[in-house]
Amino acid sequence: MNYFITGGSGFIGTHLTDLLKKNCPKCNIYNLDIVENNQNGKVTCVYCDVRKPIAIEGISITEDDIIFNFAAVHRTPGHPDPAYFETNILGAENVTAFAEKYNIKKIVFTSSIAPYGAAEDLKEETTIPMPNTPYGISKLVAEKIHMIWQAKNSLERQLTIVRPGVVFGKGENGNFSRLYWGIRERKFMYPGRKDTIKACIYVKELVRFMLYRLEHHEQGVELYNCTFEPAYTIEQIVETMKKVTGMDHTIPLIPAWILMSAATVAGCLGAPMGICPARVKKLMISTNICGKKLAGSGYKFHYTFEEAIADWFKDNDKQCLK
Questions:
Q1: pTM over 0.90
Q2: Looking at the domain assignment, is residue 243 inside a domain?
Q3: In this structure, which of 28, 233, 237, 319 has its CB flanked by the most CB atoms within 10 Å?
Q4: Reduced to 3 states, what is the DSSP secondary structure of residue 292?
């Protein structure tokens, strides 16, 4: 059996590779990416720009193979609007066309919580999507493209769509890493409130859940929010990071209007440390995502939130979180 991972050089793809090799040492894993990363010989790299039709030579491809579609432009803000549509939508079209060409019947697609849009209300899988960013729109359209592929042969094709909250773990270089360093360097302050909900999932938990659903998939399309249940507040996240990594200083709260003014000035100066109004707004708005469907799926979490932060810390030799 072959596993094809588009965007396999990225954060989630490298962790999935580690788990696949642990569970199935002799399986063939192909990293389809524009960035070459063979992960110390664990995968075979195939140059692949998902914005173009996917052509692979010299590999025996069968209908029993599995595709994990992780390729995406996702950092927001950070890219011009067309980049989200070009990579995320054309990518979905080309990945599903590749599956169609070789009659591959199983795809796992990593979407996002961005299709729900920014609002405080609790979002379940049945909540009507209302994306309010180019990234969120592009991810919702990509979901629909995958669903159209599945519907063309609904009795045989298996599609799993995951909508993860903030994914954290070794190598993320994202929101949680920035938060940790902000705390450690005493540059982080609660932005206007401490009760902002930030749904999140440990990367090792996310990839385990993907493989679990492949084994326990029911017919048709499965859609899962992927987050700890219940989701944690920013204060709970901060205090857990402090506890695990040995920090004990008090984190101040700064009024929202002061923070936004400072972020506006920082934005005019080129957004040092990634500080800009759009990112500050993201900090102040909850990502209130319901994980009850995942919790009731039969999957057993391997880590509590605190254990996940501790495992991440251990993966960095208990020196930092990155």
A1: yes
A2: no
A3: 237
A4: helix
- Per-residue confidence (pLDDT) for residue 200, from 0 to 100: 98
Beta bridge partners of 163: 225
Mean pLDDT across the stretch 96-112? Answer: 98
Q: Is residue 278 part of a domain?
A: no
184-215 tens-digit pLDDT: 999 999 988 999 999 999 999 999 999 999 99
Q: Strand pairing partners for 108?
A: 68, 160
Q: Which domain holds residue 10?
A: 2-171+201-227
In this structure, is residue 111 part of a structural domain? yes
Per-residue model confidence (pLDDT) at position 277: 67
- Confidence class for position 81, pLDDT limits 50, 70, 90: confident
What are the b/e assignments for 142-174, b being 16+ CB within 10 Å? bbebbbebbeeeeeebbbbbbbbbbbbbbbbee
Contact 224, 297 (CB under 8 A): yes
User: Which CATH number do you get for residue 90?
Assistant: 3.40.50.720
Identify the residue whose tokens are 């996940």. Answer: 308
User: Can you point out the beta strands (E) in 169-318?
Assistant: 190-191, 197-198, 200-202, 220-226, 232-233, 253-254
